[in-house]
Amino acid sequence: MERLQKVLAHDGVASRRQSEKLIMSGRVRVNGDVVTELGTKVGVHDKIMVDGVPVSSEAPTYVLLYKPRGVVSTANDEKSRETVVDLIENVPQRIYPVGRLDYDTTGLLLLTNDGELANRLTHPKYGVEKTYVAKVTGIPTNDALRQLRQGVEVDNITYAPAKAKVLSTDDKKHTAIVSLTIHEGKNHQVKKMLASVGCPVEKLKREEYARLTLKGLNPGDSRYLKPEEVKELRRLTDLA
After folding, report:
1. Where is the RNA-binding S4 domain (predicted)?
2. Distances (CA, A) of 103 to 59, 100, 183, 195
3. How far apart are CA 21 and CA 48, in angstroms?
4. Residue-wise pLDDT tens digits, 56-78
5. Domain count, the chain
6. Whole-number Å distance between alpha carbons of 52 and 197
7. Mind giving me the DSSP string for 139-160?
């Protein structure tokens, strides 16, 4: 038996806190009865509904995708564009992306139906690191790298300190390849941080996420996470 709000969070209905609000507001039914007590526990055979919609408990599923350019990081797109979920074949469970990558950004993206883990992975409290490699216009100076390492402010938004280093430079084209490791996930964060130090991004790729890499994958490829990889993600987010 598990607490109702934990089940709702795990099944991707909402975060744990939002699930508690759903329960207290009388929007959740268990076996046909409205439940408003947060201590309520449910089992695998109980029928749960939120706003009249059944909640299905599926086996936890974790998929790593090498997102290509020109694909949106969502389960459904109102403009009928190709989504990251469209790229995942032969996965019967209803999975959705953990966070997002921009339309023109490539790289590592996780998809899961484990709502609780997904919420923790994207919460800055747990400091889960994400490493990006960017081709930028301009060559970052030591001062620019120092600013990135100390954290920058853009449009009244403060971005936490990042691990930054220059991987290579092209003096003729006046471009550089830069690695940036962050633990937040604010909108267009990497692009804004690099632009703020005079190095706008031309191309961007996420190469690592919580020690996971793209090794062995080509753009558009995906694979299930190994049990030990899931265990490590849970350890990093205090779910172990």
Report:
1. 2-60
2. 29, 9, 21, 18
3. 16
4. 667 889 999 999 999 999 888 88
5. 3
6. 50
7. ---HHHHHHHHH-EEETTEEE-
